[in-house]
């Protein structure tokens, strides 16, 4: 394996020297909290496929906004008390399934240690911090308006339970990375996933025959702002294709394939007053799905 650095290039991509991409299964965080890349010969290395850029569709204009961030895993509870229960179940069951899942002893031990460390922080350390905060507030009140001997409280964190050790930052992310790998390579059967608690609730997909985006268009000083959203279906879709008709005889042309709601069309305005029209359609697996949005139009130039 090799350590990752800013702007690192992948010497094993096809062709070599391609930038590392989001979702690369050979990237991971080590026990020291730093990023690494697996190389041929390393355990769990996945060979790269040749990079074949699309040629059937025009290159979209760049999106000035940041990429959409990944959502938190839906199997992980939102309440801290439930998180501790989930982590305890995960680390106990992982030890039972490690051999069947093909996990090395070190990888298993690291994941269990991450889970036990987080349970300690959630259950013991955080409660101790909150209790200390109440004592500190009481001491401040006494110092300001009270009487008698004042003794400022000193915070002493609870001792680590037997077998629990402090872990590098990113413990939960490392657990999520392990779970993603297990699901990706199919090593974790559905009964195992259910027992480990790593299957989220089933959410029905939208009807891909009728789904369609809703868009708006507003003229700004630096272009036309195209408003659109996923309408709650982001996890089922890949992109939103936006087209424009600039009333120049070319008809509808592709403006962009967007992945972040909201897009700025920065094309210079014409010299004469002109009506521009916009429409959009969702995309999945490099194909259009559903229906076109209603058209949104603006008058620009002049």
Protein described:
By secondary structure, the protein is an alpha+beta fold. It folds into three domains: 1-53, no CATH class; 80-196; 216-300, Immunoglobulin-like. 26% of the residues lie in helices and 19% in strands. The strands form four sheets. Strands 8, 9, 11, 12 and 13 form a five-stranded antiparallel β-sheet that branches. A three-stranded antiparallel β-sheet has the order 1-5-4, with no helix packed on it. It has a three-stranded antiparallel β-sheet with strand order 6-7-10, with no helix packed on it. Mean pLDDT is 86; it is low at 52-58 and 61-72.
- The structural class is alpha+beta
Question: What is the domain total for the residues?
Answer: 3
Mean pLDDT across residues? 86
Radius of gyration: 26 Å
Q: Compute the separation of the termini in Å.
A: 60 Å
Q: Helix coverage percent of residues?
A: 25-40%
Work out the number of β strands.
13
What is the count of DSSP helices, taking H or I runs of 4+ residues? 4
SSE topology string: EEEEEHHHHEEEEEEEE
Estimate the global geometry from the Cα principal axes: extended
What profile does the largest beta sheet have? 5 strands, antiparallel
Q: What amount of the residues lies in strands?
A: 15-25%
Low-pLDDT stretches are 52-58, 61-72
